[in-house]
Amino acid sequence: MDLIIAANWKMHKTTAETIEYCQAIRKDEELFKGLELLVCPPFTALPAAAQILKGSPIKLGAQDMHWEQKGAFTGEVSSAMLLDLGVEYVIIGHSERRHLLGESDLWVNQKMKAALTSGIKPILCVGETEAEREQSITEEVLKRQLSSALKELQAETVKSLVVAYEPVWAIGTGKAASPGDAENASAYIRTIVKDIFGKDTGDSLFIQYGGSVNEDNIGLFAVLPSVQGVLVGGASLKADTFSALIQAARKAVES
Ligand code: PGA
Question: Which domains does the chain have, with CATH numbers?
Answer without folding.
Answer: 3-254 (3.20.20.70)
